[in-house]
């Protein structure tokens, strides 16, 4: 019996640990960074310590996505529902967000990262608003990774915003109702001009979308990672990217 030794020695796809080739990567990857609170609880720490540890994981993932040439990366940092959390947790998250932008902005600029905030910033305290608008202004001309940070974001609220804007355009005569297409709606999303999400990764073990990028994830591949976000790292990301590369995407059609 003949054996194909090189093939037998090659790691199976599930064991592959490197990054897949560029053409197999998602153009747009989105993350629901869940599990910070449980990560902290397990260690007897306050929930805010979990968010701080989550920021460290985020740093590694942004760096990696930028280095491997991902076009767009979206992260769910604060939802419209998160305001209902205990006040000390909301305050800790606010502080983390402004501190993050102050400490990271130079590296993000150096890496040619372009920051877009998805969501309604009007409800944020002035200090955070300043840090966020400054980060967007300073990275506006950058042509590398498009980093979308969802803050005070909700997928339904985003769709509602688009409906209202399009209705106003129809009322003013700028838009003919019969000419509204999917592209029209996409153009009114915060992600205007970007490709739809190819891969959505949610850490923390729960398997739901939680009002994140409802329009943009219509044919996204979903991966639910059991690890808590602070434990998510480059290695896990590469595993998820390899899993994505193996998926058969048909977009509702039949392959010839
Ligand atoms: C969900 O975990 C996570 C959040 C609501 C916040 C995510 C924020 C960060 C990772 C850091 C801050 C972001 C930036 C942009 C600097 P959870 O608290 O719901 O965890 P649990 O499900 O275990 O309770």
List the defining traits of the structure above.
single chain; 256 residues; alpha/beta; Undecaprenyl pyrophosphate synthetase; six-stranded parallel β-sheet; 8 helices; 13% strand; globular; binds farnesyl diphosphate
Structure at a glance:
The protein is α/β, with parallel strands linked by helices and 256 residues long. The protein contains eight helices and six strands; from the N terminus they run αβααβαβαβααββα. The chain has one domain: Undecaprenyl pyrophosphate synthetase (3-Layer(aba) Sandwich).
Please provide a written account of the structure.
- The chain is of the alpha/beta class.
- The protein has a single domain (31-243), classed as Undecaprenyl pyrophosphate synthetase, CATH 3.40.1180.10.
- The chain has eight helices and six strands.
- A six-stranded parallel sheet has the order 3-4-2-1-5-6, sandwiched between helices.
- Helix 3 runs parallel beside helix 4 (87-110).
- The model is unreliable at 8-16 (pLDDT under 50).
Topology (elements, then pairings):
Elements: H1 5-9, E1 28-32, H2 36-42, H3 47-68, E2 72-79, H4 87-110, E3 114-118, H5 126-139, E4 146-153, H6 155-172, H7 182-187, E5 199-202, E6 221-224, H8 234-246
Parallel strand pairs: 1-2, 1-5, 2-4, 3-4, 5-6
The protein binds farnesyl diphosphate.
Major beta sheet, strand line-up: 3-4-2-1-5-6
Which structural class is indicated by helix and strand composition?
alpha/beta
Proportion of strand residues: 5-15%
Question: Looking at CATH, which topology would you report?
Answer: Undecaprenyl pyrophosphate synthetase
Q: What's the CATH first level? A: Alpha Beta
Bin the helical content: 40-55%
The number of distinct structural domains comes to: 1
Q: Write out the distinct hetero groups bound to the structure.
A: farnesyl diphosphate
């Amino acid at each position: 019996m003949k054996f194909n030794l090189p093939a037998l020695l090659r790691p199976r796809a599930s064991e592959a640990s490197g990054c897949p080739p560029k053409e197999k990567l998602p153009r747009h990857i989105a993350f629901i960074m869940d599990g910070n609170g449980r990560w902290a609880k397990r260690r007897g720490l306050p929930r805010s310590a979990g968010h701080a540890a989550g920021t460290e994981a985020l740093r590694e993932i942004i760096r990696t996505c930028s280095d491997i040439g991902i076009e767009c990366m979206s992260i769910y940092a604060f939802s419209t529902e998160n305001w209902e959390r205990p006040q000390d947790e909301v305050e800790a998250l606010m502080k983390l967000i402004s501190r993050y932008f102050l400490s990271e902005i130079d590296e993000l600029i150096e890496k040619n990262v372009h920051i877009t905030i998805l969501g309604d910033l009007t409800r944020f305290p002035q200090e955070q608003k300043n840090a966020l608008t400054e980060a967007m202004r300073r990275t506006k001309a950058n042509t590398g990774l498009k980093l979308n940070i969802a803050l005070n974001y909700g997928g339904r609220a985003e769709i509602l915003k688009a409906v209202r804007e399009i209705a106003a355009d129809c009322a003013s005569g700028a838009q003919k109702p019969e000419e509204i297409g999917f592209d029209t709606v996409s153009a009114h999303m915060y992600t205007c001009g970007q490709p739809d999400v190819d891969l959505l990764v949610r850490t923390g073990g729960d398997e739901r979308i939680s009002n994140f990028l409802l329009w943009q994830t219509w044919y996204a591949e979903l991966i639910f990672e059991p690890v808590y976000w602070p434990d998510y790292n480059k290695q896990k990301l590469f595993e998820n990217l390899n899993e994505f590369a193996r998926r058969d995407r048909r977009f509702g059609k039949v392959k010839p």
